[in-house]
Amino acid sequence: MSRLIVVSNRVPMPAKDGSAAAGGLAVALQAALQARGGIWMGWSGESSGDREPGPLAHLQKGNITYALTDLTDTDVEEYYRGFANRVLWPICHYRLDLAEYGRKEMAGYFRVNRFFAHRLAPMIEPDDIIWVHDYHLIPLAAELRQMGLKNRIGFFLHIPWPPADILVTMPVHEEIMRGLSHYDLVGFQTDYDLQNFAGYLRREGIGDDLGNGSFDSHGRIFKAGAYPIGIETAAFADFAESAANNVMVQKTRRSVEGRDMIIGVDRLDYSKGIIQRLEAFERFLTGNPAYQNKVTYLQITPKSRSEVPEYEHMQKMVAEQAGRVNGAIGTVDWVPIRYVNRSINRTVLAGLYRLATIGLVTPLRDGMNLVAKEYVAAQNPDRPGVLVLSRFAGAARELKGALLVNPYDVEGTANALARGLAMSLGERRERWSMMMEHLLSHDVSLWCENFLRDLVTAPELARTGA
C-alpha cells in the first residue's frame, strides 16, 4: 500500500491524547493516513512577519507526520485573505459582486503555491500518493509537475464549482483550469459541479470530455468525478444520543419546554443565507400568529474571517435583524430568536440538533453542507425532526427526504417551516428513514475510500496524455 500525503491550507491537529480532531473529514483522512502511513502538510496558521518562514515544524503521531509551515504577513494578505477569500470564494459561490480582483493578490496566490511545492517536494517518495484539498491549493500539482514529480496527485474541491459564464469573469480563469489539468483525479461535491467543469472545457475549446469520467485538456488526460462527502454517520448518531445527558443540553431543553425549537448552525458567511432565513422566520411568525410563543429559533453562528470587511458588516446586520424581530414580536417570557455568535462544543451541538423539531439549512450556495447531514444523523428515530434544506446546497442532491426550499423565496421558506411543524409523525419517520439509510451507506469513510481507489487507477490515463 503506497504512502499517502495530504496537503490542505490548514491542518486539523490531533488532540493531546492522540485522538482525531473533531469533524468527520479529519477523522477519515487521519484514519487513511494512519493505515497507509504518511504526511499531512499545511499552513500553521502563524505568520513569520516580514521574515522568511523557518523550517517546517514536524510532529509525529503514530504513522502520521504533521508538517506545518508559517507564512509571511504578505503571503497571508495576498494568498489567503486576498485571492483565496476575496476572489475564489465569492466566484465559486456565484457572488460576482463581492469579488475583488488585484494582480498583486493573484500573483501572491501562485507564489505561495510554489512555496508549498518547494517545501513539500523533498518529503515525497516515488510511490507516494498525494491528495490536495480545496480552492487554496489548485495550482499545487502544476508546480510539483514543473519540478519533475510524476506521482499520482488528486484534488478535491470542498466548495461549489461555478458555470463558465461566472468563472470566465476571473482574469486568471485559464491558469486556474490549466492547474486542474495537472491532477490525475479532480473530485467535486456534486454532479452539477462536474457538469459545470466539463461545460467550461467544452465552451472555451480547451478540452474534451472523453467519457467514462476522462477528460483531455492542456495536453493531459485526467479523470474527474463527483464524490459527495459524508459524515461519520453511525458515530455521530451515538454521539447525539449520549449528548442528551450533557448539562447545557438539559438546560436548553428546560428553557424551551412546551415549545418547538428550530435550529440553524452556520459560519458567519454571506453564502449561508442567514439574513434571508431570519426574514423567512419573521414572515412565518407574522403569517401564522398561532405559533407565536410556541416556537423558538436558535441560530448558532461563529464568527468567520472577521478581518474581511464584508463579514464584519454582515455580523452587524444579522445581530440587528435578530434584535429587531425580537423587539417587534417577542414578549416578556418569550424571545423568538436566540442568536449565539460563538462556537459551540460539538457534544452540545449534537444534543441541540436532537432537540430541534426543524433543522433549518438554507445556504444561498454551498458545496455540500455537513450541518444538514449531522442534523439528520442526530435525530431520535422514534421522534425525528424535519430538515428544511436549500435546493442550492450540495446535500440537496442526496437528502431526498428533506423539504427543499429556494432561500431567495422568503414566503416559500416560511411556508416550509409551517409545513414542517405541522407534519405528522408518520411522515417525519418516513422522510428521516430514507435520509438516514443513505447517510449510513454513504459515510465519510466510503467517500475517502472511493476517491483514493479512483486516484490509484487514474495515472495510467494521465501518462498517455503527457
UniProtKB/TrEMBL annotation:
Keywords: Glycosyltransferase, Transferase
EC number(s) recorded for this UniProt protein: 2.4.1.15
Glycosyltransferase keyword on record: yes
Top-rank taxon, per record: Bacteria
Listed Gene3D superfamilies: Glycogen Phosphorylase B
Subunit and interaction comment: Homotetramer.
Name recorded for this polypeptide: Trehalose-6-phosphate synthase
Entry similarity comment: Belongs to the glycosyltransferase 20 family.
